[in-house]
Amino acid sequence: MNWRKLLTGAVENWPAKVLSIGLAIIIFIFHRMSALEARFFSAPLDIENLNAVMPSDSYPRMIRVSLRGEANSIYHILEDDIEVFVDMGNIDSPGRYILPVQWRKKGTALGVEPLQISVDPMEIAFLLDHRISKLVPIAAGFRGQLDSGYSMAYYSLNPSQVIVDGPAERVDTISELFTEFIDLDRRRSNFTMNVDILQRDPLVVIRGSTTTEFTGMISRIIPVRNITGLPISISGVREGFTAELETGTAGIRLEGESQSAVDQFEAPPGFLTVDCSYLDEPGVYTVRIIAGPAENVSLRVDPAEVRIRLSHMEEDDQP
Question: Are residues 184 and 268 in the same domain?
Fold first, then answer.
């Protein structure tokens, strides 16, 4: 064999031959790729290696993932086995950054060939701020009405405050967090329940548990009415004596089963009296004030006692 002639023939018109080989490879690849199928799904975006800063403005939480490969391979890949993330390990100061969206394979995605993976968007602009923590009180949120005649006397939350983490500008504006609505409709007795703490800002995170235990103490409302300035009558003064009250009026506190009962009560003349029938010597005494009968209400006299001066009647005053 004449090797010189073979070599000469091989290199003759070599640009055309290289171009032909290249076109053949391209055609092969194109044919191979055209035979592949595509699959699309959305994956949650993870932010990795957060240090002193964190996002302080909204950003895409879901990323569109495209898989391209053989049908019998790509449809067996679990969506959770394609992880989409942004790495912030090299950032430690606030500002605006444009970072690439990266991906990694695991589990059922490993060893699948051919497999092309692409993400949309390919990069994201982040506004970053200092990461701070703060202790924030919790307030209960209510809806509905207790049963008629009942009121919330007291309630407690355990815990009553939580620590939140987030970007400084947003955390500084938080003065309290609210629970989900607690339904009060038709309640008339004490109750305890676990309720979620609302997280209205997705960039602010509650450290630890996101629930709290609510305990409500419900009591019956007792209708009350105070009446003041009722005159006090004196009875039972023995013959030859006169009596003089230190204070001529007193008040009463009414309590009833219904508001109408206490509202409709009217004290008749002589409703409040003091009995002097057992006093037989001049002097100053403290005597109990007696109230007359009252229907459908209970009452308390205020003050309950009054001082009275008992004196001999002057001769000119005797009949």
Answer: no
